[in-house]
Amino acid sequence: MKKSPEDCLHCGKCIVSCPSYRLFLNENFSPRGRNLLFSRNFDSIALDFCLFCENCKEVCPQGLSFPEFYLRKVLKEKGYPWPYLSDSLTLLYFHPEGKKLYKKFSPESIKFFKKGDFYIYLSCGLKHLYPQALFNFLEKIKAFGFKAHIPMDQDCCGIIHVTLKARETLKKFAIKKLGYFEEKKPVVTFCATCYWMLKRVYPLLFEGEKEEEEFISLSERTYFVSDFMIEYLNIEPSFKKNKAILYHLPCHLKNDLTFQKRTLKKLLENVSETCCGSAKLTLWVRGFQKEYSKFWKRDLFGKSFIATACTGCYLNFSLQIRRPPEIKHWIELIE
């Protein structure tokens, strides 16, 4: 049976876990407040300040996720006819510092990966922000006799179109994934948000439609890279350990989709679980991320590197701090 905002017990356990409440200290900007607004069909700017982190679900006795309620509504609305962007990171060229982050990716580097034991989802971030993470991973698994299949011409997961409520454009992105990952073998992602999109959002997007079962199947065989190494390849990743390195655990890897929270703390020292403030475009234009950054910048004192595993977090850190610390993906620091 589907859960609804009316199932909220109003216990308040979710309030302190919510990043937007932490900044505004206003009940409307908490999951409990949003559930009340939503259940009574009240429109409020507070709804858009949901970061989709699902921290509320992690602590709720009922297992309620306000992002899920909100997404179900948003993904069924017609939305706005935003243009299709195969690579959302091209928007970095409109940011004075962003274009410096964008790395060119040569398709030649993956031309020998047309067949393999599992798929790799070649996301925007993996191609243009932290490609070394891909090459480190490929080198690591080669030593164990595994080979990846990397389909050519892959596009964005479409997260920006969730934010913009561009339902039809988002569906184009999702349908393409069925073509890329046609064979029934595992799909490995390197970005926490891409993982969340394939695992959680696509099945919601096609709920009740003819493609629903295909997206449920895709969801069930989608893994985050470090989970995949442990569970499927039987390789326990070893990361560089140094007091000058801060490992950041993205929100979308803390919930029940992965077991990162327990494995990462076992494998690493200096782990931060602080939300980055999300890379939600509608909040960038309101200056939310800049204001929220005070909650995570204090963790960076004395650090030379901050390693994360999400394109949105990577962008937030990269665009809001001076170097050092340098920004890395976890797999760039694998040993």
Automatic annotation (TrEMBL):
All copies of domain 4Fe-4S ferredoxin-type, residue ranges: 1-28
Keywords: 4Fe-4S, Iron, Iron-sulfur, Metal-binding, Repeat
UniProt cross-references to PROSITE patterns, sorted A to Z: 4FE4S_FER_1 (PS00198), 4FE4S_FER_2 (PS51379)
InterPro entries: 4Fe4S_Fe-S-bd (IPR017896), 4Fe4S_Fe_S_CS (IPR017900), Cys_rich_dom (IPR004017)
Coiled coil: none
GO molecular function, one term: oxidoreductase activity
Entry-linked PANTHER family: ANAEROBIC GLYCEROL-3-PHOSPHATE DEHYDROGENASE SUBUNIT C (PTHR32479:SF19), GLYCOLATE OXIDASE IRON-SULFUR SUBUNIT (PTHR32479)
Protein name, entry field: 4Fe-4S ferredoxin-type domain-containing protein
Organism of origin: Caldimicrobium thiodismutans
